[in-house]
Amino acid sequence: MGSLRKRGTPVGLDITWAVDWVRQSAQVISEHRVELLTLDREIGDGDHGENMDRGFQAVLPKLDDLSAGSTPGDVLKLVATTLISTVGGAAGPLYGTAYLKAAAAAGDAVALDGPAIAAILAAGRDGVVARGKAESGDKTMVDAWTPAVEAAEAAAADGMDAAGVLAAAATAAEAGAVATEPLIARKGRASYLGERSVGHRDPGAESSALLLRAAADTAAAAAGA
């Protein structure tokens, strides 16, 4: 956490990236809404895509109300409170907690470097674990978040910049989501299916991978600007 820079010494990804990430997240979730609905219809309530789309669309107009001097942490907190109040099912509290814990880890930093990005991802994952009581292998979004955190921490330790850390996290999250397909669900509504949940990808893991890829893509664009 020592790599989180204090206000006035911007290094890494700043408020512009954070806002762009949210906008890209809303676009990606909208584009994959039907896919997420289908995945959730197979082993869940069938509303994950609709709920996530509604939540991120609700965040968009609020971005225009951010005050001057807002930080990435402020953006993460805005996402958290909006998702908690607008997203139904388990996704609202889980994602809301993830973004809220990430915001707390970001603190008042004006910009986030590689280790700081790894720290906020770890905080988000830990929030999901604490709220959902799930572990790796339970066929939940944790199966995308945990490999993402591990990859981010390894990339940060290797000296990668923030964009590189997010790229590593996104790739690991995507692999983690795919790896949920052969698992037997042990948490959530999917757990009621037992072995019938095998062969289906967890929708929460998939949406997590989509959001982390959006973070990586916007970071890459910022780095190339």
UniProtKB/TrEMBL annotation:
Organism name: Agromyces ramosus
EC category: transferase
Enzyme Commission number(s) from the entry: 2.7.1.121
InterPro entries the record matches: DhaK_L_YcgS, DhaL_dom, DhaL_dom_sf, Dihydroxyacetone_Kinase
Top-level taxon: Bacteria
Gene Ontology MF term list: phosphoenolpyruvate-glycerone phosphotransferase activity
Protein name as annotated: Dihydroxyacetone kinase-like protein
Pfam families assigned: Dak2
Transferase among keywords: yes
UniProt-listed SUPFAM superfamilies: DhaL-like (SSF101473)
Membrane spanning stretches: none
Keyword line: Kinase, Transferase
NCBIfam families listed in its UniProt record: dha_L_ycgS
